[in-house]
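Hey team,

Filing this mostly as a record. A colleague (T.K.) asked me to run one chain through the structure pipeline before their review meeting, and I want the input and output archived in the tracker in case anyone asks later how it was produced. No errors, nothing strange. Just documentation.

Input sequence:
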Amino acid sequence: MTPTGAKTAYDYDDLRRLMSLMTGDEKHGPAATSTLDVLWVLYDRVLRVTPGTADAADRDRFLLSKGHGPMAYYAVLTAKGFLPEEWLPAFGSFGSPLGHHPDRVLVPGAEIGSGSLGHGLPIAVGSALGLRAQGLTDAAVWVLVGDAELDEGSNHEALAYAGATGLEELHVVAVDNSSAGYRRPGGLAALFACEGWSVTTVDGRDHEALYGAFTAPHPGRPHAVVARVEPKN
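Output structure:
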């Protein structure tokens, strides 16, 4: 602890407390908590980006397409030093940088402004193509989408293009909390597999299973991880 009492190091057990500091309407609590474990494992063990390298050309990119209910995202960014804890209680209030959807020009570490569902994956495809054109093939692009969001036609076009062009730098985490209006034969995994993606389905609360899925080799193909979760308030 610093002399002022501000905490300087956080771990997974701190995330619920950090989330509890964010109050008010339109929290979308279940949407936020369904992503908590996925976000923590990515930022704690997988993504090559820190507050000090947030502008580095060869950093990994994380795009939050599932932008509604970003409390878990803000909590993890705080735990990893991108945001000060003092910002959290003002979440969603007038003048706060932490809105109900993240704004890339206001939130340190945010790669895109999330809002309209279905935009994140196409942007991620473009990001991966741009990095490839610059020869930055060690920079991975990750995008987190929701199960209902995959109903959007823009995502289907992005999926098909990424599979056909073998965008190995592209990774999708699809959080499946059964919020989609209808279920597909074969589940979400079949949506990716039929387009030539590498794909695996895991328990979205199991950190070791998530880490294994996130780091699985997938030469020549984009990679998708379907994280099945039961929403918690």
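Quick notes for T.K.: Residues 1-5 have pLDDT under 50 and may be disordered. Residues 120-133 form the longest helix (14 residues).
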